[in-house]
């Protein structure tokens, strides 16, 4: 796991840390990256939930690297991915100090999220309000089937 100067943890195929293992014992509201606009909406909702719960916000992004690329050399530069996430947090209006960004480079997004999220995670997912044919809704349905507490926010 690499810690960057801007406070992002980037993992290259390592086993991700799950929500339950936080050493400070603080409650986390986890936002799962779907699309830039959907994630910004989810961050805003997570910000209001976190204030009410006295919780911290964790932005989890599982970037799926195609199999013909090594995990430590994805098709998009890691710095670009990190800066995109920092910009999303800034544009969402949530205090940047309240958000921990975890960027995972992995061959399978669903398996990575499964390893990353605790059984009782409170997860916020943002996306378009369409019913079933978009990425955000697929992620939401998968998380619900896995027993996560999911809040879906429309962008």
Question: How is this structure best summarized?
Answer:
The protein is an alpha/beta fold and 155 residues long. The protein is built from 4 helices and 7 strands, in the order βββαβαβαβαβ.
Describe the protein's topology.
Blueprint: E1 2-3, E2 8-12, E3 28-32, H1 36-53, E4 56-64, H2 78-92, E5 99-106, H3 109-116, E6 122-127, H4 135-145, E7 149-154
Parallel strand pairs: 2-5, 3-4, 3-6, 4-5, 6-7
Antiparallel strand pairs: 1-2
CATH superfamily: HUPs
Low-confidence stretches: 1-7, 15-22
User: Which H/E pattern describes the elements?
Assistant: EEEHEHEHEHE
Globular, elongated, flat, extended or rod-shaped: what is the shape?
Answer: globular
Helical coverage, percent range: 25-40%
User: What is the percentage of strand-forming residues?
Assistant: 25-35%
The major β-sheet equals: 7 strands, mixed
Can you tell me the CATH architecture? 3-Layer(aba) Sandwich
Any idea of the CATH class?
Answer: Alpha Beta
- Which structural class fits the helix and strand makeup? alpha/beta
Distance between the termini: 31 Å
What's the number of extended β-strand segments? 7
Oligomeric organization of the protein chains: single chain
What count of structural domains?
A: 1
Rg over C-alpha atoms, rounded to the nearest angstrom: 14 Å
Quote the CATH topology: Rossmann fold
What's the tally of helices? 4
Strand order of the largest sheet: 1-2-5-4-3-6-7
Mean pLDDT: 80
What does this structure look like?
The structure is a single chain. 34% of the residues lie in helices and 26% in strands. With 155 residues, it is α/β, with parallel strands linked by helices. The chain has a single domain (2-12, 27-154), classed as HUPs (Rossmann fold). Helix 1 (36-53) crosses helix 2 (78-92). The model is unreliable at 1-7 and 15-22 (pLDDT under 50).
């Amino acid at each position: 796991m690499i810690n960057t100067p801007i406070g992002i943890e980037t993992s290259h195929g390592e086993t991700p840390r799950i929500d339950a293992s936080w050493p400070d014992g603080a409650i986390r509201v986890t936002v799962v990256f779907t699309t830039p606009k959907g994630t910004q909406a989810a961050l805003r909702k997570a910000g209001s939930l976190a204030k009410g719960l006295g919780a911290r916000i964790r932005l989890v992004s599982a970037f799926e690297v195609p199999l013909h690329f090594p995990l430590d050399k994805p098709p998009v530069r890691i710095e670009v991915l990190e800066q995109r996430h920092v910009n999303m947090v800034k544009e969402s209006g949530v205090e940047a100090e309240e958000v921990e960004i975890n960027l995972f480079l992995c061959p399978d997004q669903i398996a990575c999220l499964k390893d990353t999220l605790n059984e009782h995670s409170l997860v916020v997912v943002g996306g378009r309000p369409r019913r079933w044919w978009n990425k955000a809704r697929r992620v939401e349905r998968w998380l619900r089937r896995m027993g996560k507490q999911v809040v879906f926010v429309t962008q």
